[in-house]
Amino acid sequence: MINNISNMLNSRLRFTGMVSGLDTDSIIQQMMQIERLKVDRAKQDKQILEWKRDDYRSITNLLRGFKDDFFDVLKPSSNMSSANNYYSYKVKSANESVVTASSCSQVASMEHKIVVAQLAEAARIDGGDVQLLPEKESLKLNDTIEQVMDKLGMTPSEELQLNINGKEIKVAKDKTLNNLIQTINNSDAGVKISYSSFLEKFVMTSKTMGVESKIEIKDSSGFFKAIGLAGEPDVEGYVAKAYGKDAMFNLDGKDATNASNIFTIDGVTYSLHEVSDTPVKITLTQDTDAIFDKIKSFIDKYNELVDMIDTKVNESRPKSGGRSGSYYLPLTDEQKETMKEEDIKKWEENAKKGLVKNDGMLNNILYNMRRAMGDITEAGGLFSIGIATGNRREGARLKIDESKLKKAIADNPDQVMNMFAKRSYVDYDPDATKEQRTQRYDESGVVDRLFDILQDNIRTTRNKDGKKGLLLEKAGIVGDVTEFQSTLVDEINKKDLLIETMMDKLFIKQESLYLKFAALETALGRMNSQSAWLSQQLGGGQSY
């Protein structure tokens, strides 16, 4: 689309008024002024639609950011629908060199005693000396398998074949020792092998710990024996065997085992470090401040969100001439040409205000969010633990009574968790019946109630009617198909077509006017010629 209408319509070189002396260009421009105003108005309407679309998209992005921050299952530490975020404990071990502990979920007891009898271990084979020929230098990681076998006094073959834990591993002779190590480590044999060029020794360990971990090697080539990891074959043909160990401990008077030194029992995660015959006391105290901080962070972000939406729906459109003037409208190209850059910026800032004032969709979001946070849940209302909505003029924002909330967390963390994170037996479904939605709302804590509001408005999946979230259907969002297919985008495209049609008509009308004035010039030229001829025939200006 050409920005400057006048430039497009006047781009042709013309010679006018040669006979009449009229300023034809100026006359036609004045005659076309009304038509140009119609086009300018259409372009202003299009610009307002684009700004309005951008307002909706900015709010959509705010809602998406809020959802990403507090509703993402891939971010468990900030996911407010996770019950674990409403339980936090300070955990103290009487002997941290033996065992440390932590907890981020509901626990069964606030005190434990543990005796560590044995640590879990992976299966491991520490290699002996590499059996190099006397005249050969030590192994290098970039040695080929053929060179390695030569240094070991072995007859090189086209391919080295190994068997670890029943898995066949094959490496060509032109591959390096480093390639061999990587092939073993990346195989499904479940082991890792490493080589120390300083110690000139190999070590092989299982990738897992506990009694189920193992290393069982068969070695028909004698390679593992030559590098110090194997001995003579047993009756089953194994040249090396090693097995891991389970951790063995006594927790609160009960003996138990675990394949790892890190494990969780009744909400407490233990990390074993040393064996000790002496019981180690583990003490848990509730970390009220940590839980409070998570809830406050959530409420603060919620308030920031609803305040920004509330500002938009209550923002009035300013008038360029005060109360009696007209609203600020997008500037035309001609208007911009006469203004300074800073004045254009200030004007457009005013022109962008109030475009979604009293918008029904946005007001509905605010209403539903206020309702979700203010209604009583099965565990009680947030107001009972110090989180309450203000009067209607304060919109959907919440106020926190810090001392009251901290007391509720300390006295009854289960109730606090249920108010926020209780889950319904009914999952979110955009096609749910009214009865299903009511059941889900009644059974849910405030977090899932908010989640449903977000999904209804910014959902990128479609319902049975092929519709996405309401805001996306209205204005779309960048990166989604709705960026180009939404109600406002359709209206903008229609404006584009209207402007194009009006421009065509403008061009045709202007050309018609120029043709008429050209005809006038032609007629005047003929009249002047006839006048001159008559004057000549009548002897005008001759004397005898």
Level of helix content?
40-55%
* Uncertain ranges: none
- Counting DSSP H or I runs of 4 or more residues, the number of helices is 15
| Shape designation | flat
Question: Per DSSP, what share of the residues sits in E-state strands of 2 or more residues?
Answer: 15-25%
Task: Explain what the structure shows.
This protein has 544 residues and is α+β, with helices and mostly antiparallel strands. The chain is built from 15 helices and 18 strands. It has helices spanning 5-9, 24-70, 145-151, 177-186, 223-226, 288-313, 333-337, 341-351, 360-374, 402-411, 413-421, 434-443, 446-458, 470-475, 487-537, and strands spanning 89-93, 99-102, 111-118, 122-126, 159-164, 167-172, 191-196, 201-209, 214-218, 238-243, 247-251, 254-258, 262-265, 268-272, 276-286, 320-323, 387-389, 398-400. The strands form five sheets. It has a five-stranded antiparallel sheet with strand order 1-15-3-11-12, with no helix packed on it. Strands 6-5-9-10 form a four-stranded antiparallel sheet. Helix 2 (24-70) runs antiparallel to helix 13 (446-458), helix 6 (288-313) packs antiparallel against helix 9 (360-374) and helix 9 runs antiparallel to helix 13 (446-458). The longest helix is centred in the last third of the chain and has 51 residues, at 487-537. It is flat. The two termini are 70 Å apart.
